[in-house]
Amino acid sequence: AQKVTQAQTEISVVEKEDVTLDCVYETRDTTYYLFWYKQPPSGELVFLIRRNSFDEQNEISGRYSWNFQKSTSSFNFTITASQVVDSAVYFCALSTGGFKTIFGAGTRLFVKA
Amino acid sequence: EAGVTQFPSHSVIEKGQTVTLRCDPISGHDNLYWYRRVMGKEIKFLLHFVKESKQDESGMPNNRFLAERTGGTYSTLKVQPAELEDSGVYFCASSQSAGTGYGYTFGSGTRLTVV
Question: Distance of alpha carbon A68 from its chain centroid, rounded?
């Protein structure tokens, strides 16, 4: 079975704090892709990153960084020096063979000024 | 490039009524997907079109839901008759390339409330 678990339902931080959003996935496939999407208050889902199962290099993009660890089936997302504009719901997702993407339940991040 | 457009953005209907949601994908994207998020839970797959053909509709909850994609362009998702449990946010997404590994471009969603 394929599953994505985002155990943190809501996180609240103060601006400039670092915050890590956890994502644990389950799949028996050896080839798969992991994603993070952001849903700001405006409602649309914004693609942030894609990582394939053969590339365990961590990635940094500005204040965002992602830590992919196959040994623990985790794909965690860290925002450094959070800002109010980072407030949103963040979804982790998994895609294997076929066209479906399996999403986690999302983590709502509140960043207070 | 225009993004994926969905309308209406919000819809409130009574139980038993019919509602039709529309999605206009990015021009040239053959693949169109419908997803739904109910009650703050996971975003779940409903179906996938390749052009005008349904590639996979295994996620459609029941026969009250009907999706069409006329001429491989825009798509509609009709709920008839609507039930309370149909309330949620319906997302449409499109992609140029098919298969795994490609991030979608999502629309802003349609928030459906059935009362």
Answer: 10
